[in-house]
Design goal:
Layout lengths: L2 H13 L20 H15 L5 H6 L3 H9 L6
Helix pairs in contact: 1-2
């Protein structure tokens, strides 16, 4: 499974949305499923799937799927 597939699946699992919804342009609070509670579930899912520990600034800055890729890139995860 590619890192892109893992990322998409993590968003699907955490937010309870279909894969079609998970595009780079998807942003926090633009869909009802991605609220503050779901954001923390998403962070936990991403940390588990990619075996990383995100720092507080990264958690706060993760405002879209594209931004998630950028942040994970700082942890040597490529897409």
């Amino acid at each position: 499974m590619s890192n892109q597939d893992k990322l998409t699946q993590a968003f699907c699992d955490a937010l309870g949305v279909s894969q079609e919804v998970v595009v780079d342009a998807l942003e926090y609070n633009t869909i009802k499923e991605w609220d503050s509670t779901a954001h923390m579930v998403l962070i936990s899912e991403l940390e588990t799937v990619f075996d990383v520990m995100l720092d507080t600034d990264d958690i706060i800055d993760m405002s879209s799927v594209a931004k998630a890729k950028s942040i994970l890139g700082k942890y040597d995860i490529t897409f």
